[in-house]
Structures are given as C-alpha cells and as structure tokens.
Amino acid sequence: MSEPAQRLVPTADAERSPWFAYQYLVLRAVPRVEREEFVNVGVVLYSQDAGFLDAAVHVDASRLRALCADVDLDALGDGLETVRAVCRGEAVAGLDAAARPWRRFGWLEAPRSTVIQPSRPHGGLTRDPAAELTTLLDRLVR
C-alpha cells in the first residue's frame, strides 16, 4: 500500500558509511481482539543516531478477511495513516507536532487493545535505515 516516505542519501563509499543502531516494531492488524489472531501489516523503524523515524505498510485484505470476513479495511487504513502521520511529526492522536522522535516512537510502541497493535521492539544495525525499513517490510509483512 505504501512505501517509506523518507530516504537517506548514501555516501559514495558505503564501506566508510557509519552503522546506525535502530529499533523496529511490527504493526499487527488484530480484527477480533478477543481471538488474538493477527496479520502483520506494517513496520515502524526508529534510529536516533540517523535521525530517522518512518513507517511502511502493506495490507493483504484477503488474509485479513480470512480471520474476519467483515473487517473494516477503511478504519484499518485510517489507523495506519495515523501511524505514518505520527512518524512524520504531525500533531495527531494527542501528540504535539513538536514531540521528539523518541517520544513519538514510544507512543507507537505502547500496547493497545485496538485493531492495530505493535510488537515488542526489536533492534539491529544498518547503514541505511530507509532501505532497512523496506527490507523488514518485505521479510515480515509481504
């Protein structure tokens, strides 16, 4: 559905590029919270060192409908857009536009009993956070 919005410009010599620590969350669509069944629908990646916070999403409607035939895909899409807006630093969902990226990531990782739920945070190292976000989306969601 959407690709990452931000992109770092890689250096000419990738071997000399710095490594950036990052954390990521897998976003899960849980159409019937009481059943605890879910489908991965996105990834949020945060690297304080690189100054990067972004989300990428992909919704497989047929997989979701297999769990819940009447899942509200429009509401799910709205929720995922809110996640992307939080990453972009927009004033949404009770967060001030001036909220620092670490605070926005913390807000996104907080557990909720809603249709969109985050996984526990995981970490890694990368030279290119935007490319890593796409790799994680391909590996964990698509």
UniProtKB/TrEMBL annotation:
It holds the Pfam family DUF3037. This is DUF3037 domain-containing protein. It comes from Arsenicicoccus bolidensis.
